[in-house]
Model the fold of this input.
Amino acid sequence: MTIIVFGSINIDLVATAPRLPVAGETLLGQSFLQAPGGKGANQAVASARLGVSTYIVGRVGADSFGAELVNSLQSSGVQTDNVFVDETVSSGVAIIIVDVKGENQIIVVPGANGHVNQQDVERLSHLLPTAKALLLQFEIPMATVVWAAKAAQKAGVTVILDPAPAQKDVPDELYPLVDIITPNEVEAGQLVGFPVDGEESATKATQVLRQRGVKNVIVKLGAKGALCATSEASFFIPAFPVHTVDTTAAGDAFNGGLAAALCEGLSLRQAVVWGAAAGALAATKLGAQPSLPQRMTFDAFLKEKV
Done:
């Protein structure tokens, strides 16, 4: 079985600074890193590096960034035959600032990601018969996300939605198409309309999202852990304590680990543990895709911590 990621492919331009700037302020940075990113691409690399057959469907521009992004995906083992080179627009770019605590600010310029449309869903549909799970995010047009989720549900493929970047106006029709939704606290708060800042409010958020039709809800609580609610039960998985360097791709690593575990036939509880472990490892390194763990490192970490 395979994992398909349908989503964004970006180049990340990362600057480190002593702290995050306030409006109108110029800070002297400490270092600069250019690396492949995008929530879709990150999740594809995360699952591929864990040894799972992974395909990505998306777009890049006909520029040097686009070629670099496709080559990078291939080098991590991601199948890129369904990445379309769009000659009408630039590749997607994310401009990221990271402070000494590992916290970040990000501006994303969608570029080719903003052009992902029904034609890309048609390419996706050809891959669905062999897929275990489809991973979706919100860095491509919302209408296209809904079309992709409908295609996956029709094919009997598990739909895993990372509702990031945070959105307030998610179409009601999307929720019943989603098997697993994985917001962090900020994203969960945007979805449900009240602050989510711990286990108690996260529990309320899971109830709201399940009432909207989502089958399983996982709220990622960062260093605190993850809360999962299903039709049968709710459970909490504590975070793995690590020295945090950069949280940029931790959420993407979580989703890649979660999907990889499900693809290998593990239970949802075990899959959340995999997600938490992958996210923790990603937070220990700078950058998005450069921080995503290989299977050998991942297995050693799990063996030591679990």
Notes: The two ends are 26 Å apart (CA to CA).
